Amino acid sequence: MPPLDRPDPRPPGSTSNRRGDPARPGEALIDPATLMRIKSLQIRAKVTVEGFIKGIHRSPYHGFSVEFSEYREYSPGDDPRYLDWRLFARSDRYYVKRFEDETNLRCYLVLDTSRSMSYSSGSYSKSDYARTAAATIAYFLSMQRDAVGLLTFEDKITEYLPARHRPGHLRRIMATLDREPTGRATNLAEPLEQIAATVRKRGLIVLLSDLLAPTETLKTRLGYLRSRGHDVVVLRVLDPAEVQFNFTTPAMYHDVESGRELYIDPDQARAEYLRKFNAHAAEIERACVDLGIEYERVTTDMPLELVLFDLLKARIRRGRRPGRRNAPGRGGAR
Fold first, then answer.
1. 106-317 falls under which CATH superfamily?
2. What residue spans define the domains of the chain?
3. Matching Pfam families, A to Z (predicted)?
């Protein structure tokens, strides 16, 4: 199996991808602006997942999705009788076959629907993008027969669906995600504390938020989630304008959190804004690394297939499946 990395978002024949890495052959990915024109959230998710799987099968990563569905990496204590030697010959890695009676992944999608997520410099907001990303992840994990739950929050938890895999549950998740959020002020401290108290069974927690909060607050509350035994993946969702601060005209700007109107000259404010923004971003990433949390920053112009790929890559890097039990007759608890 080749090293896990993002598939190339550029069409075949391009010379480099968006990170400057050497180009790799692969499928052209779906432009988010085009995807957002699809009215149905579930169809958006389905289109993204099907495009992702098709791209995997037609790229150097052929077989990744199949192996991910049917195998998991060997861990000490697994019965060597279940090793797949043909897969070892192809990938030089040890995998064991998954059993139907194993408990699959238990994943909770934790979605920030606060007022700051309503910001948009284009035709759709951070909230639109994050809800579509959550729907895509839920759709894919449901295909994998994993249990998926959903929590949405503003200044407190607003919606809670337990992690399940049963008929009709995915439709409930999609219906909840499809509701337009009211968008109250952000307060990450209380919701994250509530989430740690609510989600008692260990699993994977995927947080989708712009993380516009003090770093110490985030570190304390995310640390609380980790202390409860959860694996945590943070997907920080930002608008490109927030990252680049590419405004040029002095004007009155509306603060979506406080509701205040502020006069700003971008030429004078840019250097200080970028300094503070980048310092805050570096602190968040450092806090996640210190806590053993997978962290990815995504912008709303990034194809959703890459968000899904990052999540799966992070899940494999963890080296284990949270909430998994051994199949009967296999090795002891790990």
1. von Willebrand factor, type A domain (3.40.50.410)
2. 106-317
3. DUF58
Residue pLDDT, tens place only, 93-129: 777 765 443 446 889 999 999 989 999 999 999 999 9
Strand 261-264 to 251-254 pairing: antiparallel
- Cα(330)–Cα(315) distance, integer angstroms: 23
Q: Phi first, then psi: give them for residue 27, nearest 5 degrees.
A: -75, 145
Residue 84 burial (CB < 10 Å; 0-12/13-18/19+)? middle
